[in-house]
Design the sequence.
């Protein structure tokens, strides 16, 4: 076996010397674990690994670009369903829909392994789309909820241009590598798969992202479903630190969360802000990685029609040092009034929320079933509500008149203190993540992509990795990274400042506006021809045959 020397070239813009480990030449699991242990030792005491220049052998990476890996649209049908909730003018149910989207946006971590994608280079960009049938959450059909959201009806189309894709009809083994790893036999049972398809006309969700800064590494992203008047934008940046044998990953300085805007329909003008929790990658020294989530996620709503709003607190329960992880969570949806100081921002845990503000509880596991129930009547609209939900009145729905308001002794009590008093039949399934699968994306063929487009840019690295030519893959990777350093040096010499192509340079608000090129790229993706389905097979043509 031959080893490859680490790339120790100094990057003048980086905050310190590069962190690197040599490729030992042993690409089995044992060899990889040894290289990971070396890397962990070098990262001990580093304040923010993500801000450093981290040079890894290609053998430790998965064959997928970073910009493609992170997109928060593992279930684009949930994103598109934000404005099609039974066509109801009900702000509470829109919050329920945003909550469902929040739990499914990173579904890859439920079914797939943790992986290290390629580091993004400055100016790199990625775009894709999904043609899907939205899955609205109709409360009258709760008895069928665990069947309603299975993948069989989630995606009508997959990518003809992708090297491969995760079949939306079979649970993927490694969804993290699906966009670039070749898979065979995905269409062997095409007739059986097509029999499960809902051939309703699909709608399109498009996604665009660009690396807008290299030090610190920052990317901007935008997603849209014009047919449902829903947009999503934000800034991606992480902060990472080794603590013991765990890698702790938190939002970076510029990462303020996900911003969702409703541009039409009953909720027109509403903007939802979804913050990110803190995640930990565990099992590093064993080489058996798994993710746990801690802290809280807060969902707020502003804008739209007058009246009080709803706010959601998702509290991820701390894992025990002993025994296996349980991935538990609990949370509440509560009311927010204009008169509230700081819009209740100090309420970050379930126990912080006063009982007279709570309108719904939920609990469960972010890797499985999550249930919810209404509390009191504050979530119901009045008969003549015009989109404004009342805070106190009797239930307008006979099916919910029987719902009691739990007697919570004090605001400091946890939801767990009262949920045990409620009969099981009063709980409803929000969703079951264990039966959902990642919906594959559609990406344009390589011959239609820009040289800086992710798959095109990393094409040679991906090809070598898939062929297990790890030393050659590392050389290709170093070539790309060195070119980025050379370009940075030339900009510095000539006094030219880098300007993103698709997003405005200002992202202090937590998101960046599209430039004219960005708007054009989104419009092109909306019009992109995708008359192919299920791993490149045209369903209509197959049915005709």
Sequence:
């Amino acid at each position: 076996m031959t080893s490859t020397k680490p790339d120790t070239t100094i990057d003048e813009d980086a905050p310190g010397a590069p962190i690197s480990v040599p490729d030992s030449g042993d690409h089995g699991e044992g060899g990889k674990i040894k290289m990971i242990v070396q890397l962990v030792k070098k990262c001990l005491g580093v304040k923010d690994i993500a801000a450093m220049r981290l040079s890894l052998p290609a053998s430790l990476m998965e064959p997928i670009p970073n910009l493609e890996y992170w997109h928060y649209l593992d279930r684009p049908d949930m994103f598109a369903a934000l404005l099609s909730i039974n066509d109801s003018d009900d702000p509470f149910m829109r919050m329920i829909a945003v909550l469902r989207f929040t739990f499914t946006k990173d579904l890859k971590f439920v079914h797939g392994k943790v992986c290290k994608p390629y580091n993004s280079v400055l100016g790199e960009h990625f775009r894709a789309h999904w043609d899907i049938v939205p899955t609205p959450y109709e409360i009258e059909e709760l008895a069928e909820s665990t069947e309603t959201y299975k993948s069989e009806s989630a995606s009508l189309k997959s990518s003809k241009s992708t090297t491969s894709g995760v079949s939306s009809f079979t649970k993927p083994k490694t969804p993290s590598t699906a966009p670039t790893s070749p898979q065979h036999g995905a269409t062997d049972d095409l007739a059986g798969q097509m029999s499960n398809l809902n051939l309703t006309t699909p709608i399109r969700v498009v996604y665009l992202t660009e690396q807008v800064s290299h030090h610190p590494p920052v990317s901007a992203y935008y997603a849209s479903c014009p047919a449902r008047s829903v947009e999503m934008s934000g800034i991606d940046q992480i902060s990472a630190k080794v603590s013991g044998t765990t890698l702790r990953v938190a939002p970076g300085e510029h990462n303020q969360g996900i911003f969702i805007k409703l541009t039409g329909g009953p909720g027109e003008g509403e903007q939802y802000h979804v913050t990110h929790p803190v995640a930990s990658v565990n099992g590093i020294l064993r080489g058996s990685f798994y993710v746990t989530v801690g802290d809280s996620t807060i969902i707020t709503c502003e804008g739209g029609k007058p009246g009080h709003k709803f706010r959601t607190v998702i509290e991820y329960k701390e894992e025990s040092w002993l025994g296996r992880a349980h991935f538990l969570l609990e949370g509440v949806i509560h009311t927010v009034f204009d008169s509230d100081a700081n819009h209740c921002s100090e309420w970050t845990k379930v126990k912080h929320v006063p009982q007279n503000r709570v309108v719904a509880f939920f609990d469960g596991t972010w890797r499985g079933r999550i249930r919810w129930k209404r509390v009191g009547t504050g979530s119901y609209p009045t008969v003549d509500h015009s989109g404004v939900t009342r805070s106190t009145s009797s239930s307008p729905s006979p099916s919910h008149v029987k719902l009691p308001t739990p007697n919570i002794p004090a605001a400091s009590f946890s939801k767990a203190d009262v949920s045990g008093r409620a009969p099981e039949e009063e709980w409803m399934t929000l969703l079951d993540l264990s039966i959902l699968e990642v919906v594959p994306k559609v990406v344009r063929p390589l011959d239609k992509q820009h040289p800086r487009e992710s798959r095109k840019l990393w094409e040679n690295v991906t090809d070598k990795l898939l062929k297990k030519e790890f030393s050659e893959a590392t050389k290709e990777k170093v070539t790309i990274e060195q070119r980025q350093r050379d370009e940075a040096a030339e900009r510095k010499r000539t006094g030219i400042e880098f300007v993103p192509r698709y997003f405005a340079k200002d992202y202090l608000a937590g998101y960046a506006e599209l430039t004219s090129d960005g708007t054009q790229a989104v419009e092109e993706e909306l019009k992109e021809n995708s008359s192919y389905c299920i791993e490149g097979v045209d369903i209509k043509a197959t049915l005709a045959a």
